[in-house]
Amino acid sequence: MSLERPVNKSGPGSRFRMPAEWESHRATWIAWPHHEPDWPGKFGPIPWVYTEIARALAWFEPVEILCQSEEIVESAREMLKAHGARLDRIRLHVVATDRVWLRDSAPIGVRDAAGDVVLLDWKFNAWAKYDNWALDDRVGAAIASITGLRREEPGRRNGERIVLEGGGIDVNGDGLLLVTEEWLLSDAQVRNPGLSRGDYEQIFAEWLGIDRTIWLGEGCVGDDTHGHIDDIARFVARDTVVLAVEEDSSDENHERSTDNLRRLELASRAPGVAALHIVKLPFPRAVVMNGERLPASYANFYIGNGVVLVPTFNDPDDRVALDILANLMPSHRIVGIHAVDLVWGLGTLHCLTQQEPAPLNS
Q1: C-beta atoms surrounding 129 within 10 Å
Q2: First-to-final CA distance of the chain
Q3: Half-sphere exposure of 254 toward its Cβ, with a 13 Å CA cutoff?
Q4: Which residues are 243's β-sheet partners?
Q5: Domains identified in the chain and CATH numbers
Q6: Listing from the earlier edge strand, what are the strands of the sheet with 16-17?
């Protein structure tokens, strides 16, 4: 299956195009874990999980790491050194954050008509749920300062910045975007009061080069963000989507995922559009901590330059999921990362990473 780079086209009226995740990266950004309440009682192993993530990524592309303090920089460096990470491909920066979920707090890299990268620095408000988000909302300015890239703040006509989290959208790089109604159109954790379905589609067109949006229904059970797409449906090629489907009718994810499958199938049969190839991805068995169902999903994988990092959960379906993704992306190395501890923070690999696209002329 081809994963070649699409042409640098943009949607109607757009100055930018958001590249697909498999397009070339200049680097991957992560933030070193420090906020212990995100992993209550289990924080100890988390920095070692991040060490393994950075080690795996650095073989394929540069890794930029935000650290809370100089002390964290030194601790992270020692852990990376202990794991044999390629320190020549890793840079550590002192940038304070509230949390480490850069998929949502870091800017989204797009390309302009010349193929140059621009950072879209959306407003971040901690998923309209938590009070401590001010430091995370400054991450975009910090990354722009480090990289020297142009930064823009997408805003509404009333001057308010638009809240948009990277985990809530997935694109094929050729004008098609996936999103859920639960995230943006429900009455819970409202990001942008007053915005309608049509308003969001206009925002996607103007800022991301999108000419068609597919709205799925709900995200997975346990999702703290209230419906992010990156736990359920992901593009792996311009015409191919993997969808997390729960076959067990007694599981809470069954009804949600079968409804999303129906929506995708209907969208794929719409007149005048190219058909989508839909591939089912299993869910692992329910991962529970202190009676709380956690958002464990193989769909929260991250595609780097020639590598795909996939969360695993000590489950028989780990191998099934890895094999599915290996068959769909044969030019990439598929690497499983143990995520049972990580998901106690209510996110895994895609949630904690954010790619910086490479300019087309690099």
Answers
A1: 12
A2: 25
A3: 7
A4: 233, 280
A5: 16-355 (3.75.10.10)
A6: 16-17, 108-112, 117-120, 150-152
| Residue closest to 234 by CA, chosen among 151, 291, 296, 303 | 303
Note whether 121 and 107 are within 8 A (CB). Answer: yes
Q: Which amino acid is at 254?
A: H
Per-residue pLDDT tens digits of the chain, which is 362 residues long: 333 333 444 445 578 999 999 999 999 999 999 999 999 999 999 999 999 999 999 999 999 999 999 999 999 999 999 999 999 999 999 999 999 999 999 999 999 999 999 999 999 999 999 999 999 999 999 999 999 999 999 998 788 999 999 999 999 999 999 999 999 999 999 999 999 999 999 999 999 999 999 999 999 999 999 999 999 999 999 999 999 999 999 999 999 999 999 999 999 988 878 889 999 999 999 999 999 999 999 999 999 999 999 999 999 999 999 999 999 999 999 999 999 999 999 999 999 999 999 999 86
Q: How far is CA 115 from the centre of its chain?
A: 22
Q: For residues 220 and 279, what is the distance between their CA atoms, to the nearest angstrom?
A: 17
Residue 220 designated active-site: no
By the 8 A CB rule, do 125 and 133 touch? yes
Q: How far apart are CA 338 and CA 308, in angstroms?
A: 14
Rg of the chain over Cα atoms, rounded to whole angstroms, equals 19
Q: Find all residues with CB under 8 Å of 173, minimum gap 6, and list them.
A: 5, 6, 17, 18, 19, 20, 22, 23, 235, 238
Residue showing tokens 């904690």: 352
Q: Reduced to 3 states, what is the DSSP secondary structure of residue 136? A: helix
Q: What is the pTM of this model?
A: 0.95
Residue with tokens 């995520």: 339
> Active-site residue among 351, 352, 356, 357?
351
Give, in order, the Cα–Cα distances in Å from 47 to each of 80, 171, 173, 355.
10, 30, 33, 20
E strands, the chain, are 16-17, 25-31, 63-67, 90-94, 108-112, 117-120, 150-152, 170-171, 176-180, 212-216, 233-237, 240-244, 277-281, 288-289, 292-293, 302-303, 307-312, 333-338, 354-357
